[in-house]
Write a structure and sequence with these properties.
mainly alpha, metal-binding, two-stranded parallel ribbon, 211 residues, two-stranded parallel sheet, 7-cyano-7-deazaguanine synthase, Rossmann fold, QueC, Rossmann-like_a/b/a_fold, 4 strands, ATP binding, 7 helices
């Protein structure tokens, strides 16, 4: 959400891509649609990709989402190569529509240790984009923007208000309740609540458990 808002504030026309990978937290698809409409996206594509066929993650198989707190190891909520898959699909769409700037909201500070959020990965993918595409091989280079890369969650929260983007539109929880509430205890919920607390603001999202 904030990454797209930054792109718009910098004068880019926004085309939004959401991957419906049959994730446990499919509530985020509804949020993605609202955000795309609010930001005036020229087009919003929701692309189906059933990663439950692969499994290997608490988000794509019947593995419990950890609720004990943010640990040091890569958690079971890691989806194998997810951002690599997502960026590859985004790159293909960009080349098809003539876009050359890709914005992704990965963060390397307050996150759960996912390897595909690291700046080294983003840099390597940009190099790969040049090699893997007709446009890149002809010198029409792509740029991968990760404007949230080195921001804390608190700084991201503050940025949303600076851009006049309502954070209530966004969704972070990995394991929403049957009633549609954010659980409040998964890694993503904990980091989000911590970010709001550090700014002195109240998170407008509804939680089953608010820390």
């Amino acid at each position: 959400m904030v990454s797209a808002g930054i792109a718009k504030s910098q004068g880019y026309a926004v085309n939004a891509l959401t991957i419906d990978y049959n994730q446990r937290h499919s509530r985020e698809l509804e949020s993605a649609g609202l955000i795309a409409r609010t930001l005036g996206a020229q087009r919003h594509v929701v692309l189906p990709l059933d990663l439950r066929q692969f499994g290997g993650s608490a988000l794509t198989s019947d593995i419990d989402v950890p609720k004990e707190g943010v640990g040091q190891d890569i958690p079971v909520t890691y989806v194998p190569a997810r951002n690599l898959v997502f960026l590859s699909l985004t790159l293909a769409w960009c080349e098809a529509i003539g876009a050359r700037d890709i914005f992704i909201g990965v963060n390397a500070l307050d996150y759960s240790g996912y390897p595909d959020c690291r700046p080294e990965f983003i840099s390597a993918f940009q190099d790969l984009a040049e090699l893997a595409t007709k446009a890149g091989s002809e010198g029409d280079r792509f740029t991968v923007h990760a404007p949230l890369q080195f921001l804390s969650k608190a700084e991201i929260v503050a940025k949303s208000y600076e851009l006049n983007i309502d954070p209530a539109m966004s969704w972070s929880c990995y394991d929403p309740t049957p009633e549609g509430l954010a659980c409040g205890l998964c890694d993503s919920c904990r980091l989000r609540q911590q970010g709001f607390a550090q700014t002195g603001r109240t998170d407008p999202l509804e939680y089953a458990v608010r820390l």
